[in-house]
């Protein structure tokens, strides 16, 4: 029965991972394609006509951010980390550069967004959290704190995945508007979707961290008579800790 439960959990894990990877790839390709070919006419974001570089900032944000969205799911595969540690590190560095470039461009694009003040604030908060979690992930792996590195990377990718969530919530919101809430405007739905896109992701990520990283580690450490590690920064933990998808590869996971 125990083996059956393990097998069921494994199937659920791969199902969820597959949905994550497929949706990330679909949105990444959809978002980056018009900007990769430089087709201004196919721009999908409303532009401020008084800011000549607004389109450029959106393009610079869309392309590296889409690449980060594509890379992210594979970084959480234990087998990939264990069998190809060098590829994991290289992909991690590329991901980090993409997030930095994407976030810098996002700050400029959000400053001139014509979607309203509420959306600007949401995107500023999202971008600040995106950068902060990346810095923490980089700091922890440089100190050899592999478990904390994974915790911060889960948080960071949850924010990267906000681009997928935004489109899901926007589609659902517009469907609800058309069928049940005709008094709502597109702006109402878009503003709510912008905030939900990262706030809900953060809650899901924290639940995942507790259930798949901290709780199993606490049980193992409790059985060994050692104190469980914190999810916060500034505390050293064993480098052979188990990551979100199973047993980790220790110090070889350095970014």
Automatic annotation (TrEMBL):
Top-level taxonomic group: Bacteria
Stretches that traverse the bilayer: 12-32, 52-78, 90-111, 117-135, 156-177, 189-210
Pfam families: DUF2306
Disordered as annotated region, ranges: 224-255
Keyword annotations of the record: Membrane, Transmembrane, Transmembrane helix
Protein name: DUF2306 domain-containing protein
Organism of provenance: Streptomonospora nanhaiensis
């Amino acid at each position: 029965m125990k083996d059956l439960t393990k097998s069921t959990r494994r199937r659920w894990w791969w199902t969820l991972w597959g949905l994550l990877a497929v949706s990330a790839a679909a949105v990444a390709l959809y978002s980056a394609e018009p900007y990769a070919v430089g087709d201004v006419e196919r721009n999908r974001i409303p532009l401020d006509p008084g800011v000549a570089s607004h389109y450029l900032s959106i393009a610079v944000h869309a392309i590296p951010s889409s690449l980060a969205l594509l890379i992210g799911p594979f970084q959480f595969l234990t087998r990939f980390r264990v069998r190809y540690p060098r590829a994991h590190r290289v992909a991690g560095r590329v991901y980090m550069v993409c997030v930095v470039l994407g976030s810098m461009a996002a700050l400029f694009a959000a400053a001139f967004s014509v979607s309203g003040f509420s959306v600007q604030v949401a995107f500023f908060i999202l971008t600040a959290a995106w950068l902060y979690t990346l810095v923490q992930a980089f700091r922890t792996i440089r100190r050899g704190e592999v478990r904390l590195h994974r915790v911060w990377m889960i948080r960071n990718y949850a924010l990267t995945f906000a681009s997928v969530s935004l489109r899901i919530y926007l589609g659902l919101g517009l469907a609800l508007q058309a069928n049940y809430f005709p008094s709502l405007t597109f702006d109402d739905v878009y503003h709510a979707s912008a905030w939900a896109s990262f706030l809900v992701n953060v809650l899901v990520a924290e639940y995942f961290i507790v259930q798949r990283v901290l709780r199993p580690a606490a049980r193992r450490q409790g059985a060994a008579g050692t104190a469980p590690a914190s999810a916060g920064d500034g505390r050293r933990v064993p480098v052979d800790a188990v990551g979100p998808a199973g047993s980790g590869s220790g110090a070889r996971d350095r970014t």
